[in-house]
Structures are given as structure tokens and as C-alpha cells.
Write a structure and sequence with these properties.
Blueprint: H1 14-17, E1 21-23, E2 32-36, E3 39-43, E4 53-56, E5 65-68, H2 72-86, H3 101-113, E6 115-116, E7 122-124, H4 137-154, H5 156-171, E8 175-177, E9 192-197, E10 200-208, H6 233-239, E11 245-251, E12 259-260, E13 269-273, E14 279-284, H7 294-312, H8 318-325, E15 326-327, E16 330-335, H9 338-353, E17 359-364, H10 367-372, E18 394-397, E19 400-403, E20 408-410, H11 423-431, H12 441-456, H13 468-480, E21 487-489, E22 500-511, E23 515-526, E24 531-542, H14 550-572
Parallel strand pairs: 7-12
Antiparallel strand pairs: 1-2, 2-3, 4-5, 6-7, 8-14, 9-10, 11-16, 11-17, 13-14, 15-16, 18-19, 19-20, 20-21, 22-23, 23-24
Helix pairs in contact: 2-11, 4-5, 6-14, 7-8, 8-9, 11-12, 12-13
Length: 576
């Protein structure tokens, strides 16, 4: 487990490591423990296949670890607990750091081998760190396929949707049957399974399990993940608020639009039914949902395409949209006029069409823009609406809900799936609340404070809550059901504001014994001295369980306010 270092003690300080008691195992290769002035040290090697939490303590000859045994479900809950208390306050910014050795290797592989084929499709290699080892992956894939057939027999709807999905990727030449059954030594077979989105229970997506291990290794173990070139989520949402006319859309099946080098397709084999409904060998010809490298490859390929388009179409804003306003396959942008929005959409569609990419699910708060876009490319929520008479729908993207009719962000957290009133249930509920902008962070903070209080009481994971803490929890859930009454205007500049004369960023930080945080506001003033103030972002974190004075917490919050202000200026391009 990656944890911060509290104190480094050199081995030359012998008094600290002087053993006062030693416990030995029954065999020579077992761990042994030493009691010292700084606590117990567990020494020796551990079985790499034994799943444990481990922290390196000291290493004179062999690896020394402190090991905590716990169940798989508890390990996940502990990690979730750590994430819950840390994710709102990701103050560290790695954007200025150089690329790692692995990232540089990934970029070199892509730069030397990316190209467009005769059909203008972008072709990229798999980003292998090292060549995959020879493993009997076909046997493992066939075993998983037989398990899949058992599930098919139990669930005919699942089977039908699964077959339709697989037939579709074969029809689109994203996968093809392998006619030569003679495998090369290190060909790789990948199992697959179907998943459903919680909000799309009737739409299946087949995921290829590149993380499944055969002989202790998976295909993902040999793939470079690639650099973090995805745009900042908070930055995307900030830029989405700049102009009065906003548009949203995404690229259909983005990963599958980028082809894999023919010589690398042998590592993407899988088992599926042939035309005679007999199990046969197929191979994917595109990058996969489930491969470790696919997000970085898709982002690199999309930006490569934008750079090629920019050379042929100088002055177009579409490449800027690709580079600046895409978050993986989701696009969010805002401009000053409907005409500008229509031109931007059409240019971006033209750019994407050059590689057979299709931008769809388009939605805008401007009816004039929606009229200019073919209905087949509208969001599904707009398909059956009359643009001029019906209210425009709510759309969700990147963790926020946008009410296009009133052009405001709204909030709704699904608490209908009642979790048990236990420590585990509280953790699961609080962890499910995602607020990337921090607009409702004060409300979520109250839930985290309840969770912290439960942790402080050392309550067991599945022991029912009772007494005052149970009442607090029920009251908080009841309050969160009314959070949909909060509305945050999307556009930072209201209609009544004329030409902006000054734009000021105001950031605040504060702390209490319960928690600390920051918030940032944008203050605009026009030539007529009209003033408008908008909330841009906020962050909140619970105070540590260990008693800390309020001045010290305020000092912890203040640097975060500076980082927040710098990040906003970098992302939203506010003039100095």
C-alpha cells in the first residue's frame, strides 16, 4: 500500500533497532519477528502470490515487510476509505513533471509506428514494454468461454444482446475470424464478458479481459499505460462555462475506431462462434475496451488526427476543440454565438469523419444550433422532442447534470438503492457521490464527518448503527434528497452584462475543528459598473482525527487556495 513516509530512521542509529525479543517460525524460510524500541519488525520474504498489505520497513539482505492480513472485501473497503478522504483534495499537480521512462518509451513507439492506412484509418501498435511470454492462454480463454455458455443457457436476453454485440463488431470489421489455426508460440487469447451501465440496463458492452492472469501474468502486464494526456476534468468544466452557447457530444465507440498494427493483432485473439455456431478463433483488429494502453492510444490517435487536419485546414477551431475540450471521448465546449457553435460542430465532424469517427449525442442549450444538426446526431433524450415547443432535457456528462432548458447545473444523487446502516453501507453511500466541481462539497462533507465519527468509534464493518450516530445518518440522507433544488448557472457571464471591463478571481480558504477547504469565485464588471459573481469551484476535507489547532489547519488550507487559483487561471484563461 502506498503511504506517506512519516519519519526516516537510519540503520546507523542502532539503539532504535536493537532487538529485545525475537519470534521465529517453524521452518528456515518462514518470516520472523523482532521487537525493538520502535515496535515490531517482521523480516524475511513473502510469497508473491499471497495477497497482503505490505509496507517496507528495512532491508539489510532480504525484503523486510510489515504484513496485515485481511479479507479481499475489507481491503477494497479500506482503499475506498482512503480515497474518500483524499480525492476531494488532490492538491498535488503532476502536470509540470516530466514524463517517466515508461511514458517516453510509449511516445517513441507511437511516434515511429502511427500512420493512416489506405482507408484513412489511424493505425497504432500495441504499446509493448516487452514481448509477451509464451503461455497457454487459449486453454484459459476456452474455459472462460464455456463458463459464458453456461450463463447464456441461464439468461436468454443476455445471450441475445451479447450475440448482437459480437455480430456487430464482426460486421464492422473490428474483429475477424482467424482461418489459420496454427498459433505462434506467444499468441495471446483474451477472455471476454458483458457489462451493463447502471443507467442503460438494456445496452450491453463486451469487455475483453486483458487483466486476467495466466501463469501469473496478464496481457496488461506487458503493455505500457502511456502518459496522462487527458485534459483536466475540472478544466474542461470551467471552459464549458465561458460562453453563452454551449454544446456537448461524444465519439461513438472511440477505442474501436483506432486500428491495431496487423502484426500485433495475434495478441488479441479470442474464442467466439463461427457461422456454424461452433467455437472458433477470432482476433480483434482495433484497440480494446479493457486493455491498459487503450485510453492513451485513443487520445494520442485523436490528437494525431487533429494535428494532420490542422496542417490541411489552418485557422480551423476544430483541432483546438480536440486538444482542449475533449475528455477521452466526451466533448464540452462553449462559444459566444449560435453561428460560431454550428461552425465548430460542423468542422469537428468533418475532422472526425476523415478517420471514420462519428460525433453523436449532440445537445445544446440553443434551439438554433440543434435545428442545424441532423436529428440522427441528436442526443437520445432529444429524439422525440419538438425543439420549439417542448422543454429541452437534462444531460449528464463528466459527473455533472446540465439542465439545457434553464442552462444550469443541477444535482441529484441516487440514494434509492438503500445500503445497510453499517460502517460498510455508509462508506459505500458516501463513496458513490461524485462532485468534480465541488459545488455541493459542504453537503458531502457532512456525510464524510459521519463516516469519520463511525471510524473513530472502531465500529465493525457490518455492525448496525444505533443511537445518535444512526439518527445523524438518517437525517443527512433525508437532506441529500432535496439537493436537486440547488441550481448553479452554467454561463459565467449573464445576458445583462455588457462588454466585460475587469475579471477578478477571488479565492478563499478557511478551517474549523471539523474540516477545512477552499472556494473560488469569478467577479466580472462591465463598463456600466454592473457586477456579477460566480462560484467556480470548491474543495473540502475533514479535519484529521488527531487533534490539530485551527490555525494549523488554516495554514494547511491556505497553500491549497493558491494552487486552486493557479489551476483555474491556467485552465480558464482569465486575463491577469
Amino acid at each position: 500500500m502506498n503511504i506517506p513516509v512519516g519519519l526516516l530512521i537510519g540503520r546507523d542509529f542502532g539503539k532504535a533497532f536493537k532487538p529485545t525479543e525475537i519470534l521465529k517460525g517453524n521452518h528456515d524460510n518462514e518470516l520472523f519477528a523482532m521487537k525493538t524500541n520502535i515496535g515490531w519488525l517482521v523480516m524475511g520474504k513473502t510469497n508473491s502470490d499471497h495477497r497482503t498489505f505490505a509496507t517496507i520497513v528495512d532491508q539489510p539482505v532480504n525484503r523486510s515487510v510489515v504484513t496485515f492480513q485481511c479479507s479481499a472485501s475489507t481491503r477494497k473497503d479500506i482503499q475506498k476509505l482512503i480515497d474518500i478522504f483524499d480525492r476531494d483534495f488532490a492538491d498535488s499537480d503532476d502536470s509540470s513533471l516530466g514524463m517517466s521512462v515508461d511514458d517516453r518509451q510509449f511516445m517513441e513507439i507511437m511516434q515511429t509506428k502511427i500512420h493512416q492506412d489506405n482507408d484513412k484509418r489511424v493505425v497504432m501498435p500495441l504499446s509493448f514494454k516487452t514481448s509477451p511470454l509464451q503461455q497457454n492462454t487459449k486453454h484459459a480463454a476456452m474455459h472462460r468461454f464455456k463458463m459464458l455458455e453456461i450463463k447464456f443457457a441461464r439468461d436468454q436476453i443476455y445471450k441475445q444482446q451479447y450475440i448482437e454485440f459480437m455480430n456487430d463488431i464482426i460486421k464492422k470489421h473490428e474483429a475477424t475470424k482467424v482461418h489459420d489455426e496454427n498459433d505462434v508460440a506467444n499468441d495471446w487469447y483474451i477472455p471476454h464478458f458483458g457489462v451493463y451501465h447502471l443507467k442503460k440496463p438494456d445496452k450491453i458492452r463486451v469487455v475483453f479481459d486483458c487483466a486476467v492472469k495466466v501463469g501469473g501474468v496478464s496481457l496488461n502486464n506487458f503493455l505500457l499505460q502511456g502518459p496522462e494526456h487527458i485534459n483536466c476534468l475540472q478544466g474542461n468544466l470551467l471552459r464549458f462555462r465561458k460562453g453563452p452557447v454551449a454544446v456537448m457530444g461524444d465519439i461513438e465507440r472511440m477505442f474501436h475506431q483506432f486500428r491495431v498494427l496487423p502484426e500485433h493483432q495475434r495478441f488479441l485473439k479470442f474464442i467466439w462462434y463461427d457461422e456454424n455456431t461452433k467455437p472458433a478463433t477470432f482476433k480483434m483488429q482495433v484497440h480494446l475496451f479493457g486493455a491498459r494502453s487503450s485510453p492513451a492510444c485513443a487520445t494520442y490517435g485523436l490528437r494525431y488526427l487533429a494535428n494532420q487536419y490542422e496542417k490541411e485546414n489552418p485557422g480551423s477551431h476544430a483541432p483546438t476543440l480536440i486538444h482542449r475540450n475533449f475528455y477521452v471521448d466526451d466533448a464540452l465546449a462553449s462559444v459566444d454565438s449560435p453561428k460560431e457553435a454550428i461552425k465548430l460542430i460542423q468542422d469537428t465532424q468533418k475532422l472526425c469523419a476523415s478517420e471514420n469517427l462519428w460525433i453523436h449525442k449532440i445537445v445544446s442549450n440553443c434551439r438554433e444550433v440543434m435545428e442545424a444538426i441532423p436529428k440522427t446526431e441528436h442526443s437520445s433524450s432529444l429524439q422525440n422532442l419538438h425543439i420549439h415547443t417542448d422543454n429541452l432535457p437534462k444531460e449528464t456528462s463528466l459527473g455533472v447534470t446540465w439542465d439545457t432548458e434553464i442552462d444550469a447545473f443541477t444535482f441529484k444523487f441516487d440514494l434509492t438503492l438503500e445500503k445497510p446502516n453499517t460502517r460498510r453501507g455508509v462508506l459505500s453511500t458516501v463513496a458513490s457521490l461524485f462532485d468534480p466541481t465541488g459545488f455541493v462539497s459542504p453537503a458531502i462533507l457532512n456525510g464524510k464527518l459521519i463516516l469519520q465519527e463511525i471510524c473513530k468509534s472502531n465500529s465493525a464493518w457490518d455492525t448496525p448503527l444505533e443511537g445518535p450516530i444512526l439518527q445523524k445518518w438518517k437525517q443527512w440522507k433525508a437532506q441529500m434528497r432535496h439537493i436537486d433544488q440547488i441550481q448553479i448557472p452554467r454561463c459565467l457571464k449573464p445576458n445583462y452584462l455588457q462588454v466585460v471591463q475587469t475579471a477578478e478571481l477571488h479565492t478563499f480558504a478557511d478551517a474549523s475543528t471539523s474540516g477545512y477547504g477552499q472556494c473560488a469565485y469569478l467577479r466580472l464588471k462591465d463598463k456600466a459598473n454592473h457586477v456579477h459573481v460566480s462560484l467556480l469551484a470548491s474543495k473540502a476535507k475533514v479535519a484529521p482525527l488527531k487533534s490539530v489547532t485551527v490555525p494549523r489547519l488554516e495554514l494547511q488550507a491556505a497553500p491549497g487556495a493558491v494552487r486552486l487559483a493557479n489551476k483555474i487561471q491556467e485552465e480558464i484563461d482569465i486575463p491577469d
